[in-house]
Amino acid sequence: MFNNKWKVAFLTLVGVLVVCIIFLAILIFKPVEKSPIIKKKEREEVPFAVTTNREDLTKLINHYLEKEGLNGPIHYEINIADQVELYGTLPIFNTDIQMKLSFEPIALENGDLLLKQKEISIGQLPLPVSYVMNFIANQYNFPEWVDINPEDEEIYVHLTKMDLKNGMLIEAITFDLEQNIIQFNLLLPTE
Questions:
Q1: Cβ–Cβ under 8 Å, residues 77 and 87
Q2: pTM
Q3: Structural domain span for residue 136
Q4: Which Pfam families match (predicted)?
């Protein structure tokens, strides 16, 4: 009789572990919804050209991230060098693990920005890019104008959907990091 209780307890524990592993696998590999790419449309705004460089844009983006205080388990900052680099830490088993993601920025014709994944490192552990991007997409609350597409290994930044004061809009024109030329149009409403 005593051996039978241990056998039941062991099999119950194994069953609970299997259910937990299946549940985690479903959460990790669940696809992230993609939003459609917006076509450029005619607007009733006046464009003002803004040209900047990597250093100034890095400061501006990090200030925005700090000011917005976006919620999530990942604390990160951006550095714009020859690529757009995202540095941060992932909390894993009560330990902060260093991560770095590098992207190639592409200014699209509709004014949005596409960040194509180039490199990823998490500590010394090589992980599949889609796995890490899926984890980040599921664990972090990004603004509605940022879409993470793990299967395409890219981040789509809908600059034209950003909420700026006074109804202003922004669109990317040039994002040439090699030449250190970054150009945007600020679109000011005429009404």
A1: yes
A2: 0.69
A3: 54-163
A4: DUF2140 (PF09911)
